Structures are given as structure tokens and as C-alpha cells.
Amino acid sequence: MADDALPFSSVRELKQMDAGGRGTFAAILIVKKIATKTASNGNAFLSVDLGDRSGSFSCTVFGDNPGFDALRAGGEGSVIRVEGKIDYYQGRLSPKLARLTVVPENELTDPAMLENLVEVAPEDGTSLWTEFQGFITGIAHPELRATVQAVFDEIGDQFRCSPAAVSMHHAYRHGLLEHTTHMARACRALLPIYPEVDADLAMAGILLHDTGKTIEYEGTLATKRSRRGILQGHVVLGYQLVRKAGLKSKLDSERLERLEHIVLSHQGEPEWGAAVYAAAPEAVFVSMIDNLDAKMGMVQRALRQANAEDEFSERLPGLSSQLLTKPVSPVRAVVIGGSE
């Protein structure tokens, strides 16, 4: 197989191919995750997640593959050309890679290549940022608004481009901005139903809840956790950003304490990363909206990446299930007393 014998396929196209005679392919992909493991016979192999803007898949690269050392040296965030055959493991795409080479950095300047590789939010990033700033200015309490603004004066550039996760939800460029803007829309819609929730505190908490992810994550083409992200996590990092901004803006101690609590508790459960359980009306409200949009973000992404021929998606870890991707069948109109 040679590069010029096969056109490069996207991950979406690979998932539409069958194993067998027509299952050979060539592709240019990002190494999203890579881990060195040891087989039962003592030989090393690589467990690798590869992807582009249309999706991702996992596969195994054994030590006898000619590209094994180059792939391990390139690591996460590297771009590779691969050739292989379509295969499946437990119902999931897991190709057998025959050849792979790491694309040198000096070749990663082609805008078309990068556009095909990097997944971005479906909504325009500039429009999302304009809407997001409107949510900040809509906070009526002056010191609370100043606190929120101070955080984004510090991290705004990173926030606009950052993903919201490594893989679980909104895990693409502008994903954090999209996720937070969707939460703010939901907040505005739901606040009239829950008058017990302080509107300004809830909106401020939503806008700030994931700001620590701008420090937790790093990487241009593939996202991984930074040193501070591993050692402290985005909940603590976000708390630090909020506390510093609140003190600078002279936010009163009660509101600052409640705002910090929203950030510390928004993950919901300690096993999910929360420092504490939500114990204030605004904190419960924000945590529930966060969980809602995270889950629906997984749904939206799976629907965007679904193949028309498949009834269900692959298993989504965040939902602990496959997702029914076929749309609801339209209702046929019936004319009584006449023909349709």
C-alpha cells in the first residue's frame, strides 16, 4: 500500500467502511492519547487514541510495527500518516495499522490539513464570545460583575479556545466557551422557576465554574492535563482565580464565600472531582445545569458524528450506554373521509 494509491480518509469515513476486502485505508490523524503497556508475554505495546475533527478511535500498536518507536517518541499531540486495515473489537472501530509515520512539524502549516484535523465547536466562536460578554454585563451587582470581569481579563484568550474536557464532553476547540454559554442560556431560562436562587450569584457561578480548566489543560492539537492540572485540578485552580478576583474587586465576604462554594461543588460528587457537596441554593442550581449540559453535549456530539446507516452510536462512557441516533419518524397525516 502506498500513500498515492489511496485517498486520505476521515474518521467518519473509516467508521462507514467494512472489515474485509475494501477495508484498507490511509489517513492523517492526531495522536490524542498514548500509553505504553506490557502484554502477558512481556512485550511492550502502545494503546493509542487517534482522531480528527470528525471523530476518534482506539487501537493497539505492537512493538514489531516499524513505526512503534517513532510513534512513542512523537507522543500526544503529534500528527501521523497511517495506513492499515479496518477491524473491530467489541463492536468498536479498532484498525490494524500496517504503516505509520510522524508528520514533521514543518509540514504542519497547511491550513486545510489543520482544519480537517482539529475539531471545533459547531457554533461560531466569535459569536459565542460576544454573547458570553453580554452575560457578564447583565450581572447587576457591581462588585460581583467586577469579580467575573477580572477573571476573564486574566484568562480570556485561553478561555475562548480551550476545550471543556480531554474526551468526555465539549472536548474540542471553543468547547469550554460553548459549554459555559449553553449553561448561561439555560440559567436565564430556568431562573424564573426558582426564585429562591440569587440570579446574579447563579450567573456569576456559571460563568466562572470551569475557569480552572484554562490552566488544567494544555496542548495545541491534542489536549492533555498540565502539571498544575494533575496536582491541583480545575476545581481548586478555579477557586484560586475566583478568590483572587473577588478580593481585588472588594466583593463582600458572604457573596465571595458563596461564589467560591459554587466553584468548589459544581462537579456534584467527590468521585467526580467536587471538593464539597453543593450546600447552597445557587450551588445546587449550577451543579445541575452543569451536569445537564455536559450530558447533552455528549448527545449532540454523538448525533453530529453518527453515520446515517447506524441506529446506535458506540458506547459513550459519560452516559454508560450507547445512544439511539436515528431521528423520530415523522407522523403521517391522515385525512378522514378522503384519500391522503
Walk me through this protein's architecture.
A hairpin with a 5-residue loop joins β1 and β2 (44-52). The protein has 340 residues and is an alpha+beta fold. The chain contains twelve helices and nine strands.
End-to-end span in angstroms? 55 Å
Helix content: 40-55%
Tally of domains: 2
H/E element order: HEEEHEEEEHHHHHHEEHHHH
Averaging pLDDT over every residue, what do you get?
88
β-strand percent reads 15-25%
Structural class: alpha+beta
Tell me the CATH architecture of the largest domain. Answer: Orthogonal Bundle
| Main beta-sheet strand count, sense and barrel state | 5 strands, antiparallel
Shape, principal axes of CA atoms: globular
Poorly predicted runs are: none
Would you give the CATH topology of the largest domain? Hypothetical protein af1432
Total number of helices? 12
- How many strands? 9
Rg, alpha carbons: 23 Å
CATH class of the largest domain: Mainly Alpha
Strand order of the largest sheet: 3-2-1-4-7
